[in-house]
């Protein structure tokens, strides 16, 4: 079985043991960003401590338990630049290689930052900063017959 989990699961030794014993193959983990400012923007504070060390400890714990990790990143946050995207890709390629004592790799999945419909703190911040246009104007332009 494969699951989805938060990176802070690596701090819970009992949980890690239970996952490994249950036959869990791995998890999709929302790393989101390697930039603390982007993590704060979307309220992903649980990753703040881990990102400061490059997620090294967390990835090693996952590998020690033989769990594969599918790392999910979101690109296009307000603080992303060409260089930060390259850094994310370098990180993904570097961590995709299994460690010497494990066959578990860390494949990645990248997403474009697109807040869902409705009013969320992230979408409000992005709209106010001009990162995304007003949804109503997009809807008017894409309506049938226009």
Describe this structure in words.
Helices cover 41% and strands 16% of the residues. It has seven helices and four strands; from the N terminus they run βαβαααβαβαα. The termini are far apart. The model is unreliable at 99-105 and 138-142 (pLDDT under 50).
Largest β sheet strand count, sense and barrel closure: 4 strands, parallel
The tally of helices reads 7
Q: How large, in whole angstroms, is the Cα Rg?
A: 18 Å
What is the approximate shape?
A: elongated
Report the strand count.
Answer: 4
Query: Beta-strand level of the residues, as a percent range?
Result: 15-25%
Query: What low-confidence regions span 5 or more consecutive residues with pLDDT below 50?
Result: 99-105, 138-142
User: What is the helix fraction of residues, given as a range?
Assistant: 40-55%
Supply the number of structural domains: 2
- Overall residue-averaged pLDDT value: 76
Our measurement of the CA-to-CA distance between the termini, rounded to an integer number of angstroms, reads 47 Å
Broad structural category: alpha/beta
Major sheet: arrangement of strands = 1-2-3-4
SSE ordering = EHEHHHEHEHH
């Amino acid at each position: 079985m494969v699951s989805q989990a938060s990176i802070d699961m690596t701090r819970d030794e009992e949980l890690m043991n239970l996952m490994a014993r249950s036959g869990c193959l791995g998890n999709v983990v929302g790393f989101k960003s390697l930039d603390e400012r982007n993590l704060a923007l979307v309220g992903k504070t649980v990753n703040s401590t881990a990102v400061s060390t490059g997620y090294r400890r967390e990835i090693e714990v996952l590998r020690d338990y033989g769990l594969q990790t599918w790392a999910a990143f979101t690109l296009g946050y307000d603080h992303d630049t060409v260089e930060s995207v390259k850094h994310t890709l370098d990180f993904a390629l570097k961590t995709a290689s299994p460690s010497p004592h494990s066959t578990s790799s860390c494949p990645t999945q990248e997403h474009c930052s697109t807040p869902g419909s409705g009013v969320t703190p992230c979408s409000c911040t992005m709209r106010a900063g001009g990162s995304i246009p007003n949804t109503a104007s997009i809807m008017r332009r894409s309506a049938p017959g226009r």
